[in-house]
C-alpha cells in the first residue's frame, strides 16, 4: 500500500520556478480542499479554477492562493455562442482554463490528487518536475535506453547518434499516479482493489509516430507551443460519451507534435490519486468509446498533416476536417465534434489575438 | 516468474569470454546460472586458456571448434565480442540469455540480488506491446495493467523477440561521454520493463541481452566491424548494428522488443580516454545508419527472418556500400551468417 505525503510543516518553496509564467488549471465540481496539502509547492502560483456544474454553488478556495474562477455563467458570457464547444458536467471543461490563461505554461491537476512520496519518503514536488521536463529537450527521434539523457546522473548511451543529442523542444509533460491507477471501467470492475505502488524513477520521450493514452489528471504543457491543440472535446451533459476527453486531446496533440517536431514526455512526476470513481458510472460513460476507439486509433495513426500546416491552429483545423471526413460515418457525434474543434480554434484565436494574427500572417 | 517456474531446458546462457579467468564471473552468477546449460565461447584471439570453476553444466568452444564448424575463413566473424554469436549459432534452445563477462548480478533497491536470467525469460515469455504505448509500462506484470484509453484489440500484444537489459555502476556509455564524466556511475534503478514502440529506433547493447532464438535467431547478425575494433565495448559497434537490424526486422515481422529490467552490475574495464585516442569510426557509421534504417522498407515478400536479413544486406550494400567499406563488409557478413545459420541448423 502507498500513502500520500504529509506536507504539514513544509515551507512554501522559496524559489518557485516560472512563477509568473505558469498557470495552474483546476476543474472542480465539489471543493478544493486538496489545495491545502499542496501549499508548499503550488501556493506561489496563479490558479485558474473552472467550476463545473451548478454555477450558484460557492466554491471555497483555501486562503493564500491567488486565483481567478470561472463558472458556467462566466463561460457563456465570455464565449457567447462559442461556449457550445466547452463541455458541461465533465472535467473536460478544464480546457476553458487553457484558453483564458495568458501564461506560457499550464499545469493541470484533478481535485482528488494529493502529494505523493518518493521511495525515500520525501514529498514529491510534482510541479517542479513538470517544469524541469518542459524546460529540457525531448528525444523523439531515437530511443535512449537510459531514458531521459538530460537528467542528473544519466546520459545518452553508446550508439546514440551524436547529431540527435540536442533533442527537440518539449511541448508536453505527462505525469503518472500512485495509489488509484487510471484504469478503464472494465479493468476497474475486474481489479477493484489493485493499487499502483510501483514508483518508476524515469522520465522518457514518447517516440515520434507512437500514440499513447494521455491522462489529464497530472499534466503540464507549453501553451504557446501546443495550447490550441489541447481541446478536451465534447463530453458529459448531452453527449454520448465521457472519460475520453483527455484521450482525444492526447491523440490530437501527439499527431501535431510529431508533425511540428515537438516532444512529449511521460513518467515522473507522480501524484497520489486518492479517489476511485464508480466503475458502473464509468462504464456507462466509456461504453461507446470502447468501441469507437478501435476506429479512432487507426484514424490517428494514419493521419497525415500537410506541409502547409505550420502552426498549431492550422494543424488542428486540418485534423478537424479529417475527423469530419473519416469519422462521421462512425457516429454523427464526430460530425459535431469536428465542428466543435473549429469553434474551439475560433474562440482560442479570439481570446488570444496576437497568436491569431501571426497564424493569419503565415496562411 | 521465479527461477522455479522457468523451463530451464528451453534456455541456453551464452557467454563470450574475452577474459581468460572466468572464476569470479561464474561464481558470482552461480545462484542464477545453476540448473541452466551454459555455452562459453572463447574469443579466438585470446591466447590464454580459460579458467572455468567446477559446478556448471557447460560446453566450451574455442578457435579450433569454431573453425571446425564454420571453416577457417569464416572464423574471423567471431573474434572479439562477436565470439558470442557462435554460441547463438550452435545453440539448440528456444531462448538465449547473453551477458558480458565483466558483469555480475546487481542488487535491487531492497538489497536483493537480481536474477537477471529469470527476468529476461519472463520478458520473453510475455507479449510485447509495440503498437500503442502503455503509460504504466509493462501491462502484464504484477500490480499493473493497461491504462484507460488503451485499445482493447491491442491488449493481447505480439510475441517478444528480444529483452534488452540495463546496467548499474558502469552504464553502456560511449567513450567520449565516459571520458568526459569519468566519475559518473549509474545508480538509478528504474523499476520497469517496457516495449520499444513500432518504428522507434534504439541502440541495443550486447552487454545484457536475451532473445527468442526460435523466433529471430538469424537476425542477431555479427556484421559490423569498425576499423581498429578493440576488446573493450567503447571500441565496438557490432551490437548496436545488430540491434538496429533486429529491431527493424522485428517491426517488419510484427514482433516486439522490450527494454528495462533486468539490471546487471557492470565493472570497470579499459580506459575511456585511451579508447578516445583511437579515431572514433563508430560515430560516423551511426550517423549514416540512422537515415538508412529510418527510410528502409523491407519488401512484403520477406516473410521469414532469413529473407529479411538477406534483403536488409542487399539494401545495405546498395545504399551504404559506397559510403564506407565497413558497410559492404557488414552486408557480406550478414549474407554469410544466414548461410551458416541454415547449414548449421539444418544438419543439427
TrEMBL record, chain A:
<comment type="similarity">
    <text>Belongs to the RGP family.</text>
</comment>
<dbReference type="GO" id="GO:0071669">
    <property type="term" value="P:plant-type cell wall organization or biogenesis"/>
</dbReference>
<keyword id="KW-0333">Golgi apparatus</keyword>
<dbReference type="InterPro" id="IPR029044">
    <property type="entry name" value="Nucleotide-diphossugar_trans"/>
</dbReference>
<feature type="site" description="Required for activity">
    <location>
        <position position="158"/>
    </location>
</feature>
<dbReference type="GO" id="GO:0005794">
    <property type="term" value="C:Golgi apparatus"/>
</dbReference>
<dbReference type="GO" id="GO:0005829">
    <property type="term" value="C:cytosol"/>
</dbReference>
<feature type="glycosylation site" description="N-linked (Glc...) arginine">
    <location>
        <position position="158"/>
    </location>
</feature>
<keyword id="KW-0325">Glycoprotein</keyword>
<dbReference type="InterPro" id="IPR037595">
    <property type="entry name" value="RGP_fam"/>
</dbReference>
<comment type="function">
    <text>Probable UDP-L-arabinose mutase involved in the biosynthesis of cell wall non-cellulosic polysaccharides.</text>
</comment>
<dbReference type="GO" id="GO:0071555">
    <property type="term" value="P:cell wall organization"/>
</dbReference>
<feature type="site" description="Required for activity">
    <location>
        <position position="165"/>
    </location>
</feature>
<dbReference type="InterPro" id="IPR004901">
    <property type="entry name" value="RGP"/>
</dbReference>
<keyword id="KW-0961">Cell wall biogenesis/degradation</keyword>
<keyword id="KW-0413">Isomerase</keyword>
<dbReference type="Pfam" id="PF03214">
    <property type="entry name" value="RGP"/>
</dbReference>
<dbReference type="GO" id="GO:0052691">
    <property type="term" value="F:UDP-arabinopyranose mutase activity"/>
</dbReference>
<protein>
    <recommendedName>
        <fullName>UDP-arabinopyranose mutase</fullName>
        <ecNumber>5.4.99.30</ecNumber>
    </recommendedName>
</protein>
<dbReference type="GO" id="GO:0033356">
    <property type="term" value="P:UDP-L-arabinose metabolic process"/>
</dbReference>
UniProtKB/TrEMBL annotation, chain B:
<dbReference type="InterPro" id="IPR004901">
    <property type="entry name" value="RGP"/>
</dbReference>
<dbReference type="Pfam" id="PF03214">
    <property type="entry name" value="RGP"/>
</dbReference>
<feature type="site" description="Required for activity">
    <location>
        <position position="155"/>
    </location>
</feature>
<dbReference type="GO" id="GO:0033356">
    <property type="term" value="P:UDP-L-arabinose metabolic process"/>
</dbReference>
<dbReference type="InterPro" id="IPR037595">
    <property type="entry name" value="RGP_fam"/>
</dbReference>
<dbReference type="GO" id="GO:0005829">
    <property type="term" value="C:cytosol"/>
</dbReference>
<comment type="similarity">
    <text>Belongs to the RGP family.</text>
</comment>
<dbReference type="GO" id="GO:0052691">
    <property type="term" value="F:UDP-arabinopyranose mutase activity"/>
</dbReference>
<feature type="glycosylation site" description="N-linked (Glc...) arginine">
    <location>
        <position position="148"/>
    </location>
</feature>
<dbReference type="GO" id="GO:0071669">
    <property type="term" value="P:plant-type cell wall organization or biogenesis"/>
</dbReference>
<comment type="function">
    <text>Probable UDP-L-arabinose mutase involved in the biosynthesis of cell wall non-cellulosic polysaccharides.</text>
</comment>
<keyword id="KW-0961">Cell wall biogenesis/degradation</keyword>
<keyword id="KW-0325">Glycoprotein</keyword>
<feature type="site" description="Required for activity">
    <location>
        <position position="148"/>
    </location>
</feature>
<keyword id="KW-0333">Golgi apparatus</keyword>
<dbReference type="GO" id="GO:0071555">
    <property type="term" value="P:cell wall organization"/>
</dbReference>
<protein>
    <recommendedName>
        <fullName>UDP-arabinopyranose mutase</fullName>
        <ecNumber>5.4.99.30</ecNumber>
    </recommendedName>
</protein>
<dbReference type="GO" id="GO:0005794">
    <property type="term" value="C:Golgi apparatus"/>
</dbReference>
